[in-house]
Each structure stands twice: as C-alpha cells, then as structure tokens.
Amino acid sequence: MSQDLVTCEWRGPVALIGLNRPAKRNAISDALLAALEACVTQAQQGARAMVIFGHGPCFSAGLDLAEHRARSAEEVFRHSRGWHRVFRQIREGDVPAIAAIHGPCVGGGLELAAACHIRVADTSAFFALPEGTRGIFVGGGASVHVARLLGVARMADMMLTGRSLDAAAAERAGLVTYVEPTGNALPRAEALAAKVAEAAPLTVLGVLQALPRIQDMAESDGLFVESLVAALAQTGEEAQARLTAFLEKRAAKAGGS
User: Fold this and answer.
1) Which of 74, 92, 111, 238 is catalytic?
2) Residue 164 has pLDDT above 90, yes or no
3) Considering 37, 67, 131, 198, which one is annotated as catalytic?
4) What's the pLDDT score for residue 1?
5) Is 171 a catalytic residue?
6) What is the distance between the alpha carbons of residues 6 and 25, in angstroms, rounded to a whole number?
7) Is the pLDDT of residue 35 over 80?
8) Which residue, 100, 94, 16, is CA-closest to 60?
9) 252 C-beta neighbours (distance < 10 Å), count
10) Among this protein's residues, is 74 annotated catalytic?
C-alpha cells in the first residue's frame, strides 16, 4: 500500500519521490506520511539529490482533514510532532531536496515544500494556508519554516484572510526559487537535481547543515562557523582536485540560471 501512496524511482544518483494519491489531490494522510518517510529514508541512504513532486493534478492539497476531525487535543499534538519528524528528516538530512510544484500547494503541502531546500513551481501553481479559515492552526512546521521564507506579516495575512499566492507572487516573496511554464516544473527540478548531485560532499554538508544554523547565530558566531566550514571544505580532497582543474583551465565555466 505504501508503494501505491508514494512512488520512489531512481535516475542515477537522483531519487524521484512522488506523492501518489491523485484522486484526493495528494492530501497527506497518516499512511501517505509514513510512506513518504520510508522513501525519504531510502533516499538519504544512497541518493545525492532528491526531487519531491505530486502525481496527478497538483503537488498537494495538504492535510487529510477527514482523518483530523475526530482527534483529541493530545492526538493532534502527537500527530503534529510526527509531521515535524518526517519533514525534519528532509530539511536536516544529508541529501539536497528539490520540490517540483504544480497546481495547489496548500497547507501541509506547502509545509512539505518548505522542508525542501529548493522549490521549483510552474505557472499553474498556487500557494495557500487555509487553516485559519477552517478554524485550525498550522501543525507541520509552517509557523517556523514558511514564516522564515515569507515573513511573519505575509504568512499572517494568508492565514487570516485565506489569500493565495500564484507562482509569480511566490517567487517575488522568496517562497519559490524558479518559475517555469506549465508542465515544466518536474523536468527543471530533475535537471537541477542532476546538477546538485555533482556537488562536492563537503560543500553539500556546509550548505545543508551549517548554513541554516548560521542564520540563528549572532553575527560573530556565524562568521566563526563560516570560517570553520570553509576550512573543512576547502582542504578536502575533492575540493583540491576541482581547484586544480579550474586553475589549469580544465573546469567548466560557471553558467547562468
């Protein structure tokens, strides 16, 4: 059953993880979340990059409210902490994650996208946090991670008024990094993942593990950690080989976006 709810396909060093509940607009049920966790765990053990996308008409319409309605306060609390655990595995793992977004990316779907390191949206995508209009509150990490991307004021507006952002507005707000024509989010995400998979492991470690933590540090502490990570990465064997190739004009030149 878990294989039906989430697909996991390997293309070289890239794991493609697909939410596969299209009839329910990829609403995240407990079973789908468990299947997602299993696929992410597998990807963390062997991939160099992963792409998370949605089969069918959208990325994800968010939490499966049919399961949520009858829970007690304690059950909602533990359920929320379970989402935090799974999304933390994506956000704080060792493998860069890219979200390929089309159609609705709403509520818990937006929280999943926010757990990824890069977000690619096509022009059919839109983003919303409708929890406020439904009398509930976010529970999958949005109050920390979506707010850091959008800013507290914009997130409060979305929750209180039900406002949604289209792909262009989401890009302007810093929520997504790339906007592609409709139907092109997944191919662009795959191309980016293939490029990311070529990054030096110590560089990836710095970007995924040090960079987010530096944002929470005092300036002097952040700069100190930056120097430590630079020393670690720059003296690595792979960095030395790449620097030599660059100096000998054997390395590819940096390209555009």
Assistant:
1) 111
2) yes
3) 131
4) 39
5) no
6) 13
7) yes
8) 100
9) 7
10) no
